[in-house]
Amino acid sequence: MADKKAQLIIEGAAPVELPILTGTMGPDVVDVRGLTATGSYTFDPGFMSTASCESQITFIDGDKGVLLHRGYPIEQLAEKSDYLETCYLLLKGELPNAAQKEQFVSTIKNHTMVHEQLKSFFNGFRRDAHPMAVMCGVVGALSAFYHDSLDINDPRHREISAMRLIAKMPTIAAMVYKYSMGQPMMYPRNDLTYAENFLHMMFNTPCETKPISPILGKAMDRIFILHADHEQNASTSTVRLAGSSGANPFACIAAGIAALWGPAHGGANEAVLRMLDEIGDVSNIDKFVAKAKDKNDPFKLMGFGHRVYKNFDPRAKVMKQTCDEVLSELGINDPQLELAMKLEELARQDPYFKERNLYPNVDFYSGIILKAIGIPTSMFTVIFALARTVGWISHWQEMLSSPYKIGRPRQLYTGHQERNFVGLSDRK
Ligand code: CMC
Questions:
Q1: 72 has which bridge partners?
Q2: Hey, whose CA ends up nearest to atom 35 of ligand 1?
Q3: Ligand 1 center–CA 264 separation, angstroms
Q4: Residues 58, 48: contact at Cβ < 8 Å?
Q5: Which helix (H) or strand (E) holds 386?
Q6: Is any atom of ligand 1 closer than 6 Å to the C-beta of 290?
Q7: Helices H, strands E: what count in the chain?
Q8: What phi and psi, each to the nearest 5 degrees, are found at residue 286?
Q9: Which family does the entry's similarity section mention (predicted)?
Q10: Can you tell me whether residue 183 is helix, strand or coil?
């Protein structure tokens, strides 16, 4: 909706009227598409003030610490829903009724196995490869296996690819882990829930199948829900950008996995645990907090701060509660949790963190839960990727379901002006 208008005056040119668009919630946006007629562009590295698209999937109010998926608060979804229901909601826009849910879960279960030949693909990787490196390669390779659903202009193909990706990510993630351990890969078990099946494929072996604790299954499911989507973050924007060129869905998700890997984004959960290891003891916290504040030191407190949340990350609140439940179920008294809590307390009292509104984010506690469940640190970001796949594919679907253009930003060029080529013998 465009009720208001902004006027832009560029010296020496006629004023330009720019419509102001209003969403259902959140800040208005100035529609700068008409600016190209003036010969100028906007300049916004890091997209600090740019809305890259219109979306109806997820809403965040970073000042109030609000996160809604299709209008439903994340706290309610984490408490009352389950991951596959949340997937349905993100993909289709509404919560499923009982019959729709049963059908959806059954379709996902139909797709949990991967092509048998995909197994041999793993052998090309070193066993000590980082699991995210293997994930990028194997998920990208899915496009070489599922040719029958690659027509991005066919809604049915898009739907099948979405189902395949959601269904196969736990299988692939567990295969990555088993490969790194040198253990046989486990086939999925469709009699288990989505999260329990993942834990089964991770921790059981062909010689020993232990029942999966429903409490741990529930905790895993909640971790999946809390990571399912997060609006136009770096990896989701990457998926949209890759998708805008017409790339196939498996290639787009592989691009999302690559973007997620960085420590400023999904790689932070792994980095938090490594940081806690490095801090080692409560007596060292002050030293590390000082390092984080030192502008000459690149060190940052991992698991703190967020581009959008300038208040408590609502996912971190639920994550902390889940963390307490898991640790008490397992009877674990984790010194790292005590260290994390002390670090949080000290950092939150510190004027540097207060002034900059730096609060713990989702990654601060997730690592401690994952560690308690028995998941190795190097697999943390893989779990994030598994859970975020539904968000990526929902945004990809949303983009392809209405008219879209290839994403092609412009630049402020500050390099050389045109100059003549200099032959090798004439160069200094
Ligand atoms: N430790 C110390 N200082 C920090 C931190 C931190 N974790 N985060 C931000 N700051 C400072 C930053 O140096 C800057 O200070 P100044 O204004 O004096 O220059 C100020 O706070 C604003 O930060 P910014 O880097 O401009 O903010 P951003 O929106 O560009 O970056 C962020 C957001 C998440 C990349 C950043 O806070 C960060 O690197 N945090 C640690 C990594 C992390 O936990 N990432 C997970 C994010 S949540 C999960 C996900 O979405 O993937």
A1: 69
A2: 264
A3: 8
A4: no
A5: helix 380-400
A6: no
A7: 17, 6
A8: -55, -40
A9: Belongs to the citrate synthase family.
A10: coil
The CA-atom distances, in angstroms, between 393 and each of 93, 128, 237 are: 13, 29, 11
Which DSSP letter does residue 208 get?
B
Q: Is 26 exposed, middle or buried (0-12, 13-18, 19+ CB in 10 A)?
A: middle
Structure-token match 């309610």, residue found? 76
What is the pLDDT averaged over residues 163-167? 98
The residue contributing the CA closest to ligand 1 atom 10 is: 305
Q: pLDDT tens digits, residue range 206-237?
A: 999 999 999 899 999 999 999 999 999 999 99
- Pairing of the two strands 16-21 and 2-8: antiparallel
Alpha helices in 150-244 (DSSP H): 155-181, 194-203, 214-227, 234-244
Q: Is 291 in the pocket of ligand 1 (CB under 6 A)?
A: no
Q: List the catalytic residues.
A: 265, 306, 363
pTM metric for this prediction: 0.93
Q: Return the C-alpha torsion angle 192, 198, 203, 205, nearest 10.
A: 60
Other beta carbons within 10 angstroms of residue 42's beta carbon come to 12
User: pLDDT tens for residues 67-97?
Assistant: 999 999 999 999 999 999 999 999 999 999 9
Does residue 370 contact residue 325 with C-beta atoms inside 8 Å?
no
